[in-house]
Amino acid sequence: MPDRSDRFESLEEPHKRGQAAEAIVKSEFVSRGIPVLTPTYDNEPYDIVVEVDDSFHRVQVKTAFEATTSGAVRFRTRSTRTKSSGYEREGYEDAVDFFAVYAPACDETYLVPIEETGKTQMTIRHVPSKNGNVENTNWHEDFLIDGVLSSLCSDPTI
């Protein structure tokens, strides 16, 4: 029986992959007892809102892809829309609080505060680099959903 990341990878259309990533991220929050709110319309810069300790956080869901360097995944921190005049790219500053990132390559979900991301993309490393470089490295354990949620809430069981 194929696992979740295999099933995810078998989806060919980007739209279906986006829907699957959103469903996976929502289930990650709900399974931890975190309420998830979804905008009625699809024109907000965030995909969901989560409530943690009576605070609401706007979350943009992203799918990470394997980075060009081994042992890392990468996700885009900009929105790209197709217009009749070409592509329109826009950042999420002041529009979201977190990126929730599903990485099918390692079947992990990350929660990344927007202030810790780059302007266009972010790389998260889950295996040390071959050259041993650790400076300015975003380690996966720093962004795993449980660790970030525990820093947001007073209930240590979440």
Topology overview:
Blueprint: H1 4-10, H2 14-30, E1 36-37, E2 48-52, E3 55-63, E4 65-66, E5 72-76, E6 78-83, E7 86-91, E8 98-103, E9 108-113, E10 121-125, H3 145-152
Parallel strand pairs: 3-8
Antiparallel strand pairs: 1-2, 2-3, 4-5, 5-10, 6-7, 8-9
Question: Can you describe this structure?
Answer:
The protein has 158 residues and is of the alpha+beta class. It has a single domain (4-81, 93-152), classed as 3-Layer(aba) Sandwich (Trna Endonuclease, Chain: A, domain 1), CATH 3.40.1350.10. The chain has 3 helices and 10 strands. The strands form 3 sheets. The protein has a 5-stranded mixed β-sheet with strand order 1-2-3-8-9. A 3-stranded antiparallel β-sheet has the order 4-5-10, with no helix packed on it. A two-stranded antiparallel sheet has the order 6-7. β6 and β7 (86-91) form a beta hairpin. It is globular.
Please name the defining characteristics of this protein.
3-stranded antiparallel β-sheet, 158 residues
Please outline what is shown here.
GO terms for molecular function: nucleic acid binding. It comes from Halorubrum distributum JCM 10247. The chain is an alpha+beta fold and 158 residues long.
**Largest sheet strand order:** 1-2-3-8-9
Looking at the overall shape, the CATH architecture is 3-Layer(aba) Sandwich
Report the helical percentage: 10-25%
C-alpha termini separation: 30 Å
Give me the Rg, rounded.
16 Å
Percentage of β-strand residues = 25-35%
Per DSSP, the total helix count is: 3
What's the order of the H and E elements?
HHEEEEEEEEEEH
- Total strands: 10
CATH class: Alpha Beta
Average the pLDDT over all residues and give the rounded result: 88
Structural category? alpha+beta
Low-confidence spans = none
Predict the CATH topology.
Trna Endonuclease, Chain: A, domain 1
